């Protein structure tokens, strides 16, 4: 029996990721001046309009209109947006629970890891993210002629009964200029992007190829489609291999467990798999607004575990890790202004958000491997 599985990714120029990056750029600007900022920033983009809404309580002095315009320029769009600012302060009803160290909202969060790649991530989402990142890098360097900032990728892998993996289909939709050479454009994508990523993972290059299936992709970004913060949550996480919790990440400071607890769940799952006590691990954490400790912890190793999930793994997590919002923030050092690049290649599976500046993804550290290995003794 053969089975197929597909994951997708989008570039930073996709209208939804444009909004994610604007929201997180506002968050970073607040945290850079006031690490205790409370931020819940939502962005909508359509044509030349950008609408910012949400709640921010901070001592920082920021210009959200300039941040939005600078982000648009950084992504690669040349138009000058018109910005409407509808941001207000955080509700005091919420603040009273957060001020004492409780969660900023109720919710469920998931973390996942497996042994399919060296990053302990599913292969299909890893490849999909790498495709758009490579294409974006080549566009910015000038090597990828005619390409625009808005891109999508989709990777379908085939798994056979013997455990072998091959690439079944790669789909890419890439914005291009009106005067492009279609044949050269598509040849470049196949040979210099698709094949390179497949070869990196020692996989076949004789896969089915789909490039701009509609035949034309000149109008892109917020001009082609409205963008909203948090609408690419599966792209941000595990490509559909694992469940996603009730909330998105971008624009939220780490007192919001939608973000911080999802990062912590990934950290725990990754260290569990890296320790060798399981080949796959799914973790769920749940919280109540204003309450410090999680309501529940769930661990599912899909039958690959060498030790008991409930009696040993969960008990060890309770014993060794502080899963309160403040505990997670301290453990992962989450009050840093690091978030504007998190949506540029997915939130998980990368050691660094920015390879040049070496901005570390603390939730990708493997510094608790020995804690979980102790269960094997």
Note down, in words, how this protein is organized.
With 377 residues, this protein is of the alpha+beta class. The protein is 34% helix and 24% strand. The chain has 11 helices and 13 strands. The chain has a 4-stranded mixed beta sheet with strand order 1-6-7-8. The two termini are 38 Å apart.
Radius of gyration: 21 Å
Please summarize the sheet with the most strands: 4 strands, mixed
Strand order of the largest sheet: 1-6-7-8
- According to DSSP, the number of beta strands is 13
Q: What is the 3D shape?
A: flat
Estimate percent helicity: 25-40%
Overall average residue pLDDT: 94
What share of residues are in beta strands?
15-25%
Distance between the termini: 38 Å
Order of helices and strands: EHEEHEHEHEEHEHEHHEEHHEEH
Q: Which structural category do the helix and sheet elements fall into?
A: alpha+beta
Compute the number of helices. Answer: 11
Low-confidence stretches: none
